[in-house]
Design brief:
Structural class of chain C: mainly alpha
Largest sheet of chain C: 2 strands, antiparallel
Strand order of the largest sheet of chain C: 1-2
Oligomer: heterotrimer
Number of domains of chain C: 2
Distance between the termini of chain A: 41 Å
Structural class of chain A: alpha/beta
Radius of gyration of chain C: 24 Å
Largest sheet of chain A: 6 strands, mixed
Helix content of chain C: 55-70%
Strand order of the largest sheet of chain A: 6-7-8-3-9-10
Shape of chain C: flat
Shape of chain A: globular
Strand content of chain A: 15-25%
Radius of gyration of chain A: 24 Å
Strand content of chain C: under 5%
Bound molecules: adenosine-5'-triphosphate, magnesium ion
Number of helices of chain C: 10
Largest interface: B-C, 59 and 70 residues
Chains: A alpha/beta, B mainly alpha, C mainly alpha
Order of helices and strands of chain C: HHHHHEEHHHHH
Distance between the termini of chain C: 51 Å
């Protein structure tokens, strides 16, 4: 008989500052040794649910609780944070607050230090754990020197250094490149198997999570649990679609092709997927859709000529980068964690000074222009929303740039409200930013730049942490802007976004441009894919599996079809 | 000592780091050559009001010590003690200005500024010079002149920037049961 | 804005291998001695010891040269200020007046005044190598352990460690925030009027401060989730245990303090008076 380890019974929670509860009548049981994924739209209450489990609600975030939550047989209200954290190890969502120690070893040892474990024992324990997560030769390194994936490993090591019963991850993949994300999932899986802990993962990238065995997927929408079943059954239903969540692409393709997805098809992973009679339907659909064509542009708007830059002398971050962006293009910039993508965007906007080379804007040299001068032409949304937010209220934050530019008040109001609608924030316009979820904050920063209506837009991971609905809305709006002639550069780890929206992609590795080609060609060039930690989309694998001889065409056709379909879908929901 | 909450400890640590960064990198040019406006004491006042006297005292003490040590290689203890004094007493006296529940009107602005001006006047104008004479045996008229100059400029900056900061902070305190989606 | 600050310099030397707590105690003893005494003989003795330790530490002057420039500039300014405000301080202290040459009014140059300036400058030269060495040879994460060892409450010791840990992050954030605000049209540098500039400066400091407040929340949550503050004491991953060298150094350090105080106050005054 399976033993329950977490039991929510008619559980509701309302943050102190909110009028309405964030979680409504949650009933949920998680059993020992299970691996559970929680998905849901941004702002639906996933992190809040996690905080209830680890005790931050109500011990750190105050509010009103109704109903009951039992963990390992004890009612959480009767416990304190310390005893709860003995049971639950948490890896938090916010990238800023993850690390406490200066060096890897110190950070892993943090909870042991607090338990006053003697130094020798502590050191040997830290060595053991760092071997488990493959970081043993980095114990001395400072946290700053690590790549995104390595950081993820350290934070994992920090919670498993002591035996816990439950491991809780809040968006472990959010900032990782595709290949690193897959490794991180494999690592979580391995740890789970070795220690037999219960694992709970909150993640938007369902397809990536499903690369490992998952027992159950729980779908949260608007603070309620709307589905709780195993992945195969979930994918056979239309719950994800109705909650505006992204289904794995191969599943979507099957559905478009008119195949009936049943639990028996084992669609949780492309490897286990049973195609059989669906093959013909895929073929039919493939033949019936018409591939779209792209036109080449030729009117340079932004030219980088032989750019070099380093943060520290002797360690070049950007090396001999030359590229030309044409007016009206929409381009992706992809590459591994730490390749220098964000740095490149900062150089273009003048945040950092290039050490050699030239930047031209419509043929005019802007290398010496100030940040402000450039900002009238090039708008940039930074990777970390906390770096951009400076006002207390959402409306004021979005209006700030316009106010500083002396735009008349009624026009500001008009433009801000329009932009807020596009970003799905209109209903929140009079809220303080501090009461938003992480994904919502990111949208505020996108809005604050969109509102400026610059000719060139650079977005650093615009869709990280967004659900499909907001993803579609933001991306469609960008496409709309693009068709009006706005040039758009996007830094992204999302391969599908790259294929779907940008005909051209630039791949960066170690501060150098290693490929500049159509998105499809980059993704099918195995050398580039390997060097830049990209991942082939599952659609490609599906096409191969179905025996389609031009898988690339299949992928492009899917994308065109999907875009159309989503426009109708958005009207429906 | 009362048990320090973890939040206070973290506030002290991060606060000291910010105090340091502000003191070292964020000086606003006034237009008068070689004279800049220090923003770090405005921040110290905010932290003392928000997190209380112990946090205020330690942020001043640790932040100032670190700044001296890391930028000059030695610590000018007499002035470090003044920073501690200012953080401590603003924290103690400003308890009555309850910004925590979102109020920072005319009355609070006036009492905050009276408090900060008096404390800083004592700190820079009296305490610092006396300590300089006792510890470092420096000439009295020199240290009094330095102290009075530092006092006046800090009272003005805390008066302007500190008040703006506190007002902004008070606004961020959301009242209970106030948020709903429109 | 890119000013350098002192930080740990990795090296293998006897000074580096001492426990941080030892160095901290020695630093405190040593600066107390240097602070209290104005006895030129003691100061010279201490200076020799300082220089000797500096050589043993294998730290090169070049590596800390940027800070030396600051210190020398500060010393010069301080000396000038003292002279302007109190040109007869030396005469007052030593009770005699050997005028070398006259300038105007009380600004005549006396041997006593010059000797007083020499002593003030010496005091600095004694303390500076000790302080510098302490900073550049002690790993920041060992520092908190040392504070705790000499009796500072571990929570407060940890807050010092947090401060050291977050200075680079906050510096980096601050730059980024300032850049982001500039991109939206906020100017604190040149063209603006002072009052406008002050207001603009606050709008750059706001995000820093409010992200700080937010960060305090996140970090204290993260620390609490890993049970910081649960027990009355805690152990330290990076603590260096005391060894024989530490005890020897501590005893030697205490002797030096006592000796220098005895010599200084033997005749009842902090000052050594060669003019008697
Ligand atoms: N500290 C808080 N105070 C008040 N309300 C909050 C607070 N944190 C979150 N909320 C509210 O709770 C709702 C759910 O937030 P939560 O962070 O749980 O969302 P999420 O599902 O994790 O979203 P995301 O995918 O964007 O991280 C949000 O709409 C937000 O308004
Ligand atoms: N302000 C800074 N100071 C010093 N080094 C930095 C700074 N910002 C980034 N770096 C370093 O420069 C390199 C490139 O960083 P960058 O942020 O541009 O990578 P990225 O391609 O955007 O990675 P990710 O996909 O993880 O966002 C990294 O090694 C990083 O550690
Ligand atoms: Mg969340
Ligand atoms: Mg980046």
């Amino acid at each position: 008989m399976r033993k329950p380890i977490i039991e929510f019974k008619n559980f509701s929670f309302k943050y102190k500052s909110q009028m309405e509860p964030t979680l409504h009548q949650v009933n949920l049981t998680i059993y020992e040794g299970e691996k559970v994924v929680i998905v849901g739209p941004s702002g639906s209450g996933k992190s809040t649910l996690a905080h209830c489990i680890n005790g931050l609600v109500p011990f750190s975030y105050q509010g009103e609780i109704e109903g009951n939550l039992t963990i390992k047989g004890q009612v959480t209200k009767s416990l304190d944070l310390f005893s709860l954290s003995k049971i639950v190890g948490t890896v938090l969502q916010d990238p800023d607050g993850q690390f406490i120690g200066l060096s890897v070893g110190e950070d892993i040892a943090f909870s042991l230090e607090n338990e006053a474990v003697p130094q020798e024992k502590m050191i040997s324990q830290v060595v053991d754990v760092s071997k488990l997560v493959n970081m043993e030769d980095k114990i001395q390194s400072s946290i700053h020197e690590l790549s995104g994936g390595q950081k993820q490993r350290v934070s994992l090591a920090g919670v498993i250094v002591e035996e816990v019963d439950i491991l809780l991850f809040d968006e472990p993949l959010a900032n990782l490149d595709p290949a690193t994300g897959e490794q991180a999932m494999a690592l979580i899986d391995q740890i789970q198997k070795e220690t037999n802990t219960t694992v709970i993962i909150i993640e938007h990238r369902l397809e990536d999570v499903l690369t490992q065995d998952i027992d159950r997927v729980i779908v949260v929408n608007d603070g309620r649990i709307v589905s709780d079943r195993n992945p195969n059954e979930l994918l056979a239903s239309n719950v994800l679609e109705s909650c505006s969540l992204r289904e794995p692409l191969y599943v979507k393709a099957l559905k478009y092709a008119g195949c009936k997805v049943t639990p028996e098809m084992h669609s949780a992973s492309i490897e286990t997927l049973v195609l059989d009679e669906s093959k013909d339907k895929l073929f039919e659909w493939y033949e019936a859709t018409i591939p779209a064509t792209y036109e080449k542009k030729d009117s340079p708007i932004l030219e980088l000529q032989d750019i070099n830059f380093s943060y520290h002398k002797g360690f070049p971050t950007i090396q001999n980068v030359s590229l030309t962006i044409h007016k009206g293009e929409m381009v992706s910039i992809v590459g591994t964690n730490g390749a220098g993508k964000s740095t490149l965007s900062k150089l273009i906007c003048g945040f950092e000074k290039i050490q050699s080379g030239k930047i031209l804007y419509k043929g005019e040299d802007i290398t010496e222009d100030t940040i402000y001068e450039r900002s009238n032409r090039i708008g940039m949304v930074m990777q970390n929303p906390n770096h951009m937010i400076s006002k207390h209220m959402i409306y004021d934050e979005v209006a700030l740039g316009l106010v500083m530019r002396g735009v008349p008040e009624d026009e500001i109001k008009k433009r801000v409200e329009e932009t807020l609608k596009v970003c799905g924030l209109y209903g929140f316009r009079n809220w303080p930013i501090s009461a938003l979820s992480f994904g919502q904050k990111k949208r505020v920063t996108i809005a604050s730049i969109l509102v400026l209506q610059t000719e060139v837009l650079i977005l650093d991971e615009p869709t990280a942490g967004q659900d499909l609905r907001h993803y579609t809305e933001i991306m469609e709006f960008l496409t709309e802007l693009n068709s009006q002639g706005v040039t758009i550069l996007m830094i992204t780890h999302d391969m599908h976004l790259m294929l779907e929206y940008t005909s051209r992609a630039i791949a960066i590795a170690d501060g150098q441009v290693i490929a500049d080609n159509s998105a499809v060609n980059i993704l099918t060039n195995s050398e580039v894919v390997e060097k830049t930690n990209l991942k082939v989309t599952s659609l490609f694998e599906l096409a191969v599996k179905a025996g389609i001889n031009k898988p690339i065409d299949f992928v492009s056709r899917f994308i065109d079809y999907d875009k159309e379909a989503r426009v109708t879908w958005r009207k429906k929901y | 000592m009362k048990r320090l909450s973890i939040k206070t400890i973290v506030a002290i640590g991060i606060g000291a780091a910010v105090f340091f960064v502000l003191a070292k990198f964020v000086a606003i040019p006034t237009g008068i050559p070689n004279t800049t406006i220090q923003t770090s004491y405005a921040f110290l006042a905010l932290m003392a009001v928000v997190f209380g006297p112990i946090a205020g005292a330690l942020i001043g003490f640790i932040g100032h010590t670190l700044n001296d040590a890391l930028s000059y290689g030695s610590v000018w203890w007499s002035w470090v003690i003044v920073s501690l004094f200012i953080g401590l007493f603003i924290g103690l006296l400003a308890r009555r200005i309850d910004v925590g529940n979102g109020e920072f009107g005319k009355k609070q602005i006036i009492s905050f500024n009276v408090i900060q001006a008096v404390i800083q006047a004592i700190g820079w104008g009296v305490l610092a010079p006396i300590l300089d004479v006792i510890i470092y045996a420096e000439p009295a008229n020199k240290v009094f002149a330095q102290g009075i100059f530092a006092g006046i400029s800090n009272i003005i900056t805390v008066g302007i920037i500190g008040t703006i900061l506190l007002a902004a902070y008070a606004k961020t305190r959301t009242k209970s049961n106030s948020l709903t989606k429109e | 804005m890119a000013q350098e600050i002192l930080s740990f310099i990795e090296r293998k030397s006897p000074v580096h291998s001492l426990s941080g707590a030892t160095k901290l105690i020695i630093f405190i003893l040593y600066s107390t001695a240097a602070m209290l005494t104005y006895d030129t003989r003691v100061l010279l003795g201490l200076l020799v010891i300082s220089i000797a330790i500096f050589i043993v530490s294998k730290i090169r002057i070049r590596e800390i040269g940027f800070i030396m420039a600051f210190i020398l500039a500060f010393l010069l300014l301080n000396n000038i200020a003292i002279y302007i405000f109190s040109p007869q301080e030396g005469v007052k202290i030593y009770g005699s007046s050997h005028v070398l040459f006259e300038i105007v009014g009380r600004y005549n140059v006396t041997l006593e005044q010059l000797f007083y300036h020499l002593n003030i400058t010496l005091k600095y030269f004694v303390v500076i190598p000790a302080a510098l060495l302490f900073i550049v040879t002690t790993h920041p994460s060992e520092f908190a352990a040392s504070l705790n060892k000499i009796g500072v409450n571990y929570k407060i010791a940890y807050s010092v460690s947090l401060a050291l840990r977050y200075i680079p992050d906050i510096q980096r954030d601050f730059r980024t925030i300032a850049q982001a605000q500039q991109a939206r049209g906020i100017d604190i540098s040149r063209k603006e009027k002072l009052l406008k500039r002050l207001k603009n400066a606050s709008s750059i400091i706001f995000p820093l401060i409010f992200s700080t407040l937010n960060r305090i929340e996140v970090i204290s949550n993260a620390m609490e989730l890993r049970r910081f503050g649960k027990k009355k004491n805690r152990t330290w991953y990076n603590e260096k245990p005391f060894r024989k060298a530490d005890y020897i150094v501590l005893v030697a350090g205490s002797l030096i303090l006592v000796l220098s105080l005895v010599i200084t106050f033997y005749d009842g005054s902090r000052f050594y008076n060669p003019f008697l």
